[in-house]
Design goal:
The chain is 45% helix and 15% strand. It is of the alpha/beta class. It is globular, with a radius of gyration of 19 Å.
Length: 294
């Protein structure tokens, strides 16, 4: 049996980066193009739930949401397959988190920048850009392209396109991407460079299979089963060239299947005695809904 689990699953990704501020801080500093002198010193986790004021509007949950010592807001997402909705959902989440800052009595000048870091484990992402592994989106003046605003910034990293590099000036950038691309269930011995670095060593320790409860391991396996099912459905859709209405129906079916799978994972973890709040963080279900599961 392998020593580690794959960090790209919902459960493992949130365990590493959603529960350890020092690790998500290191990841953000390494992968985001932050202005010089504006590196992140501390982070504080915020609720990943994007709940609209109008109950009839869209509800969304991100993997990790935090703010830093400069007041900036950061969304971190791991996406295991690419579809046309993910880019739009990223814009929606970033814009929503930007707007949520404006409490009553505050001025627009008090709004802080929002960064969305999206890690995509699908080679089909951004096909027109070939094998480039980073795509950055900002608010830009169309005529004067050097006029870039960072109020809303989205950085997408296509993990399968990343090639390890040996460069001292971007050491942590490469170490974190190697951690995300090299470590999986077939890894018995991590590379010495990952073990020698304090942050990636800590992250590796959190991924040890022995650190997970039976309920968590069942949830982990169910996650990959769900991903395989969703990818198969998306592949059939692409191959058969579905009409728009039929595509929407398929996507709704996938969403329903995912919701049902999350309830089944929550039910299993609950039966194994895992904490309700932890189950909620892993599955995205509310603690009240989890309590009703039998």
């Amino acid at each position: 049996m392998s020593k580690y689990l794959d960090p790209k699953a919902d459960l493992t990704f949130k365990k590493v980066f959603g529960e350890h501020p020092n690790l998500v801080l290191s990841l953000l500093n390494a992968l985001l193009p932050l202005p010089e002198g504006m590196e992140i010193k501390t982070v504080e986790y915020l609720s990943p739930e994007n709940i609209p004021e109008n109950p009839g509007k869209k509800y969304s949950i991100v993997d990790v949401y935090c703010t830093d010592n400069h007041g900036r807001h950061f969304i971190v997402e791991m996406q295991s397959y690419w579809n046309t909705e993910f880019f739009s959902r990223t814009i929606f989440n970033a814009a929503s988190m930007y707007a949520k800052q404006l409490d009553k009595g505050k001025s627009f000048g008090e709004l802080k920048d929002v960064y969305a870091l999206c890690l995509v484990n699908d080679v089909k992402a951004f096909p027109k850009y070939g094998n480039e592994y980073i795509q950055e989106y900002y608010l830009t003046n169309k005529k004067h392209t050097s006029d870039i605003r960072t109020d809303l910034s989205m950085v997408f990293i296509v993990l399968p396109n990343y090639t390890p590099q040996n460069r001292a000036e971007k050491k942590m950038h490469d170490l974190w991407l190697r951690f995300l691309t090299e470590i999986d269930e077939n890894t018995d011995d991590a590379d010495p460079e990952l073990l020698a670095n304090e942050e990636t060593f800590e992250a590796l320790e959190l991924l040890r299979r022995s650190a997970f409860t039976p309920g968590e391991l069942l949830a982990y396996n169910q996650y990959w089963l769900n991903i395989s099912t969703e990818k198969s459905a998306m592949e059939r859709e692409r191959a058969e060239g579905r009409e728009e209405g039929e595509k929407i129906g398929i996507e709704k079916g996938i969403e329903k299947g995912r919701a049902d799978a999350m309830r089944e994972i929550a039910r299993t973890m609950k039966q194994h005695g895992d904490d309700i709040n932890y189950i909620a963080a892993v599955t995205g279900l509310s603690p009240d809904e989890i309590k009703t599961l039998q």
